[in-house]
Design a protein that fits this description.
Elements: E1 15-17, E2 22-24, H1 26-43, E3 52-56, H2 61-74, E4 81-88, H3 95-109, E5 112-117, H4 118-122, H5 126-131, H6 134-138, H7 142-160, E6 165-167, H8 172-184, E7 205-206, H9 214-223, H10 240-254, H11 258-281, H12 299-331
Parallel strand pairs: 3-4, 3-6, 4-5, 6-7
Antiparallel strand pairs: 1-2
Helix pairs in contact: 1-9, 2-3, 2-9, 8-10, 8-11
This protein binds zinc ion (2 copies).
Length: about 325
């Protein structure tokens, strides 16, 4: 006989949470996992009873797990509705598999799905952004550009779906990575990530996994038979996030509980300075999308305008070339 679960005293220990010392059977792990997501939602007041929730569903294990948990939680709130928003970035040989997982999950759970693509929204796939030299012109890495375009695409998809809130599958790891990335770039973190912030014309975004470590989401997905894509994004290795993620994962492995401690430390500081800052700096809103920003136009709108600008300029040049050829042909 193996060791018995410290919670129910019956099942065999399958999962050890080193950061808390809990030794749990599979059933207790799943139950406490879901309970934590529910508590996270309540703690930060993320969802309302009559929300139409757009789950940003990439088809990766994290978002598939989020859809599953939210579908369970949503049953307790008859007036709330779930809809999935999936973005096709146009990354050949990589995205097709996950897009298929996303579609099937929605079918199985009976959830409406809205699909939007970079191609339809921007006239450009991510493959074209990389292949046609946009990154060099912008001086940015693929993940930065993809991230901004994806974020905007999710917003547009959520608007199409008439959603009142967007739920993303960012985990504790993702949130701490972003805080650190901002610090390493010299940006101050202005507000808590993944908690509901209302603003005119902006659909608020929430991250119900913000207190859940990444490895627990993977395990939850595994125990629930959620498919996991083996192929990694072909553009992912170039990113800053990739470096920070490797470092944080190793650090957490050696010193369990560090991620959560970091989150609490950063956010404790943010919360205590927030009232002061919001009063002092005012913090306006982007002229185009209404997102909070300290400038007239937010960084995302600026970047998307730049991409469209580069694209338009190229089309203009190409047309100019064709006109030149036609003129030559006519005069000949
Ligand atoms: Zn148990
Ligand atoms: Zn904007």
């Amino acid at each position: 006989m193996g060791e018995v679960c410290g919670r129910c005293g019956r099942g065999q220990v399958a999962v050890v949470r080193r950061y808390s010392g809990e030794r749990l059977c599979r059933a207790c792990f799943l139950e406490t996992f879901e309970r934590r997501v529910y508590r996270t939602i309540t703690k930060y007041d993320m969802l309302r009873e009559d929300d139409r929730i757009a789950v940003a569903l990439s088809g990766g294990k994290d978002s598939l797990s989020l859809l599953k948990v939210l579908a369970k939680i949503e049953r307790r709130f008859p007036r709330a509705e779930l809809v999935a928003v999936t973005v096709d970035e146009g990354i050949g040989g990589y995205r097709e598999e996950a897009l298929d997982y996303a579609r099937r999950a929605c079918e199985e759970l009976g959830i409406e799905q809205v699909v939007v693509s970079f191609d339809e929204l921007y006239g450009l796939s991510m493959d074209e952004v990389v292949r046609d030299g946009y990154l060099d012109e912008l001086g940015l890495g693929p993940c930065t550009v993809c991230g901004v375009m994806r974020r905007r695409a999710i917003e547009i998809g959520a608007m199409k779906a008439n959603a009142t809130v967007i739920a993303t599958a960012h985990t504790l790891d993702d949130i701490v990575q972003t805080y650190l990335m901002n610090i390493l770039r010299g940006d101050l973190n202005h507000h808590l990530l993944g908690v509901r912030r209302e603003g005119e014309g902006v659909i608020p975004r929430v991250s119900p996994f913000r207190l859940t470590p990444q490895w627990e989401v993977i395990l939850y997905a595994y125990y629930n038979g959620i498919p996991m894509q083996e192929v990694e994004c072909p553009y992912g290795h170039a990113s800053q996030r990739f470096l920070i993620r490797s470092f944080l994962t190793e650090f957490e492995e050696r010193f369990p509980g560090s991620l959560y401690a970091a989150l609490m430390a950063i956010e404790g500081r943010l919360l205590s300075s927030q009232a002061v800052k919001e009063g002092a700096a005012g913090g306006g809103r982007c002229r185009f999308c209404g997102s909070p920003t300290f400038r007239e136009v937010c960084r995302s709108c600026e970047l998307i305008a730049q991409i469209s600008g580069i694209r338009a300029e190229r089309v203009r040049r190409a047309l100019g070339g064709i006109e030149g050829l036609l003129a030559k042909a006519r005069s000949a």
